[in-house]
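Sample A.
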Amino acid sequence: MAWQYNQQNVLAGEKREYGHAKLTFDQGGSSTPSVNMLFEDIPSGTDVWMSHGDKLSHLPESFSTIAKTDNAPFAGIAHNSNPYYGIQFHPEVEHTHHGKKILANFAVRICKARQHWTMDEFVVAEISRIRALVGQKGQVIGAVSGGVDSTVAAKLMNEAIGDRFHAVLVDNGLLRQNEAETVHQTLTSQLGINLTVVDASERFLAELKGVFEPEEKRKIIGRNFIEIFQETAKKIAREAAGSPNAGDIDWLLQGT
């Protein structure tokens, strides 16, 4: 933000600041009460987490300093009349004490965000959106790995359209021992997801044999995943012919 005002405001620091730092507040730079709203109810001298190699050399015009550390004289700045704030530490990490409070001050007190959102509301709204988007007969295929992202996406899709969602786990021969079996057990028995496991380990390993260049390996793996998905989608469509799930698979779920 300071760079946008004037590129000369930002310089390389004399030393990189990484790790814990004591943040002290300088609330005498402006007579405007809103300048200090970001650090309201936060004790001066609180621990914060730094990770930067640059720093401000000058305060942008119409801004005041509201916080500093030993190595960052402008660790926190605020515009004197507009709700513009800048900080040079990480409030989102656990190492920053009172980080959640700082974020709440910004989101709720400064930006006036409403605190009415819940995960239950999101799930209901997302299931409704999926049903409207996919329609009454639409079929969806999606890759799953057993990780959080793809599993949550798969569960949402399953709740929305049931067995018209076809989760696919491709065993490329590079998984951890028994990982494919564990993921299959979790997604089918515990979460009720319609899952197809494709054992393509021999196919992947045969094509990767003797290949040492990482970029070439990436391309081989990517191409085979695409080809296997296309083949699997056609197979699922053939097997579903004449059933309530009959129809082409027109949608791809990207879970990560």
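Sample B, a different protein:
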Amino acid sequence: MAASGKIRVGFIGLNAPYPGAPTGTNWAAQAHLPYLRTSSKYEIVALQNSSAERAAKAVEAYGFDPEKVKAYGTPEDIANDPNIDLVVSSIRVDRHGGSIIPSIKANKDVFVEWPIEANYEKAKELTDLVRQHNVRNVVGLQGGYGAVATKVRSMIDNGDIGKVESSTFIGKARGGGIVSEHISYFVDRKVGGNLFTIGFGHAMEFITKGDPLQLRILERVANPA
């Protein structure tokens, strides 16, 4: 931990925009950067991208001080930096494991976006590894802790609306029959991250907050491949 008392973060996936060519969803910049850079609890001390050069471009693009924020090109660089306490990975789903395994083995705490990995087997490997190394780990499922979910759960627990016998959730994936080229990996099942696995996982966490439940699911594909 830094002398300031803040948790020092190595951030994987915060990419500088490619001129004229959008890449991915830029989720790292949209969802995580605004909080991390203004938080009283965390301090970004390193960025890691596909190369040290790309990381250096991100340092410049987002206005970081290059004297204080290092630019790395491999997950091993992040893992080997003794001045990093927490590694945050916000990249394509099928690359999650490769981005954080070195840090887990280096006994660093890790945060990884949902879904954990491309499939159950790979996700279980990561789960077993963090248990083996006894590192603190967080998966980016947080809807159940939001204000709306917390209030509804409190009302149910207090019996404010009577006994809930069942509930119905209706969801619709955004988009249609055409997928933009820069997120074409969303339609590659092997990647593991798509509108269903991402959206369904977040929705179920929001509704159940991890509690066991019985499900009956009706799914309709409006735009078959």
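Observation for Sample B: The longest strand covers residues 42-48.
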